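To: structure desk
From: M.T.
Subject: fold request, one chain
Message: Could you run this one when you get a chance? Sequence is below, nothing fancy, just the single chain.
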Amino acid sequence: MKEKERPVWVIGHMNPDTDSICSAIAYANLKRKITGRSYIPKRAGDISTETRYVLEHFGVEEPELVFDVRTQVKDIEYRYTKGVDGYISLKRAWESMRSIQAHTLPIVDKNGKLEGVITIGDIAKSYMEIYDNKIISEAKTPYQNIIETLDGEMVTGDAKRRVTKGKMLIAAANPDLMESYIEKDDIVILGNRYESQLCAIEMDAQCIIVCDGSKVSYTITKLAENKNCTIIKTPYDTYTAARLINQSMPIRHFMCHEGIISFAMEDYIEEIKEIMAKKRFHDFPIVDLEGKYEGMVSRRILMNAKKKRLILVDHNERSQSVSGIEDTELLEIIDHHRLGGIQTMSPVYFRNQPLGCTATIVYQMYEENGVEIEPQIAGLLCSAILSDTLVYRSPTCTEVDKEAAKKLAKIAGIQVVKYAREMFKAGSNLMNKSCEEILHQDFKKFNAGEITLAVGQISSINGDELQIVKEKMQKYMQESFAEQGVSMVFFMLTDIMEESTDLLCVGNGAKEAAVKAFEIKEPAEDLWLKGVVSRKKQLIPALMTVLQQEDD
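Reply: Done. Structure tokens follow.
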């Protein structure tokens, strides 16, 4: 088996915001320092322009994008059976299979690309189902294979040549009778009789195989050289040599090379199990994206496959998580949102605090573990807090968040107000984005009884820009509503400086729910919510209360 290291992925929610990305990076870094093991930050969606600005500002690479976290072939401890050249003999292939207890051998070219496979069954058929005396030439058997298989010695000839013509026969008759059945380019197995050897060479045999280790005379050797006839001497008797010689044929002649069922490293094991169940093969080759052979996988290996290991940050709801999370080994959840009901098979470390930002919790964990925070990591954590709390304007912001941001800003060497303006300005560059990009920039789904609602939010320091975007988004939300797969869609256009939100509503009963939730007495076409800037602490709780009352 090829041992596979099992890293832990640290990943935030879909449509990630700055807190989701920065907390994943910072927490993975913390876990690596504490444990010395592999923790890798990932992301479950496209990065916003605000987040990209933050990462570029502090020189940090974007985490890899992940669409699905189900177990893949590359995650399992598959068997590495070394690939072999297609011209090795059946005998060598059989010996190799026995030595490593394999049922299948992969055949690869000089660049490592998979050419075919040969099984024990294929080798058995080569003995039981072939009666063609021309099979040695039809298989284009290298002379080197014949020498190895017969434990032979080449008296004269070129071992690098291949047999491409003629049939295989045993010279058991006298020379007069031999002349009637030996043809040009035949391979003749015979004993130590001088007359028989001479006759075969004179009849233009391409090769004579002299058995019982008999000495080949100088005269016969010279005559063979002049007639371009190969001589191979073997210690075996004619019966044994005749039985063994078929084992010299190259495996490429018998390999399966069309319709090979192989799997890619990226394939999900749940899907390949279904394919395996329909086939009777014991082993299946694994290839990379370029077709290069990587190893072999069997049903038994899949039975022991281990799941990906995950830590979730900045969310704990299934609807916000990356696809396939139910098929993973969930280890931890670090979050600051309401409890969303993710179910686990075993207990996990769950840390949830009523703070303005997950990054604040991560900062606390650095402090608690006595781990020094590098300027880069401090910059990411500080940026996440400033973003999530709208520079302390959000009602979700606590004194703990403020204190953490101040300390982190000092480590990172940034001036909070100036830096925050630059960050929000980069993030509010909305004019060059499509309506779809704007809607899903920070887009989360929630469940309220039988109702599923989605809430998107953009924040900007430019009120005029928000007004222009609002006009585009009203029409787009109506047109794309059916595609969202929810009962209601709400979209918050939050003005950071004014500390207010324009709320767009789509869906049956959506506007009515918002009007009731915020006790708006004279609702206009769109709803303006003074002092409402937080989705988590202001909008969602109010909407949930109304929708759950109606459901009851």
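Reply (cont.): Residues 435-551 form a domain with the Diaminopimelate Epimerase; Chain A, domain 1 fold (CATH 3.10.310.20). Let me know if you need anything else for the meeting.
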